[in-house]
Amino acid sequence: MTKSILFVCLGNICRSPAAEGVLRAKSRERDMKLFIESAGTGAWHVGDPPDARMIKAAAQRGYDISHQRARKVELSDFHTFDYLLAMDLANQTDLLSIGPPKRTCDIRLFLDFAEGEERETPDPYYGGVDGFAQVLDLIEKGAEGFLDHLEDESE
Ligand code: 4NP
C-alpha cells in the first residue's frame, strides 16, 4: 500500500517544504510511490509559497518547490498519514501534545532515519544563506535514510 508522509516544522515555509520536495524527488528516483505533504504547527504563513531563499537553494540542487503552499497541521492528519516526521524536537513535542490520544500515525524525528549525529534540522529562517544549504544537506541524508527504512520495512 502507498505510504503517506507529512513533514512538519514551525512555519511550513523553510524546512518541511524542502523535505517534501527532496523526498518526492528521491522516491521517484527509486520508483517508490509515496503520498507526501508538509505542514506547520504555526499558522503565520498559511497560503504562502516557501521562503524565497529556500526556493532558490532547492532549485540549485534541482528541486522545484515553488508551487507548494503552506498549511497548518490539522487533527485529521493524525489519521490520514502513516508518518508525521518532525524537523526538530519542539515540532515533535508540539505534535505529541496537539495530537489525539488515539491516533494511527507514527510521530518521529525525521533525522532519526539519517546516518549521522544530528537529530534536529535547525531553523534557517533568521540565519544567513549558508543555513539553507546546510539544511538541504541534512534533509538529503534524512530522505535517503527514510527511504532505506521503508524499503527494509516492505521486505
Ligand atoms: P520553518 O521556519 O519552520 O522551517 O518554516 C520558520 C519560518 C517562519 C517562522 C518560523 C520558522 N516564523 O516565525 O515566521
Task: Write out key terms for the chains shown.
155 residues; single chain; Rossmann fold; alpha/beta; four-stranded parallel sheet; globular; binds 4-nitrophenyl phosphate; 40% helix
Which strand order spans the largest sheet, edge to edge or round the barrel? Answer: 2-1-3-4
CATH superfamily: Response regulator
Structural class: alpha/beta
Mean of all residue-level pLDDT scores: 97
How many helix segments?
Answer: 5
Uncertain spans, ≥5 residues at pLDDT below 50?
A: none
> How do the SSEs run, as a string of H and E?
EHEHHEHEH
- The 3D shape can be described as globular
Radius of gyration: 14 Å
**Beta strand count:** 4
* Main sheet attributes: strand count, strand direction, barrel closure: 4 strands, parallel
Top-tier CATH class: Alpha Beta
Which compounds are bound in this model?
4-nitrophenyl phosphate
Beta-strand fraction estimate: 5-15%
In percent, how helical is the residue content?
Answer: 40-55%
The CATH architecture can be named as 3-Layer(aba) Sandwich
What number of domains? 1
CATH topology: Rossmann fold
> What distance lies between the first and last C-alpha atoms, to the nearest angstrom?
13 Å
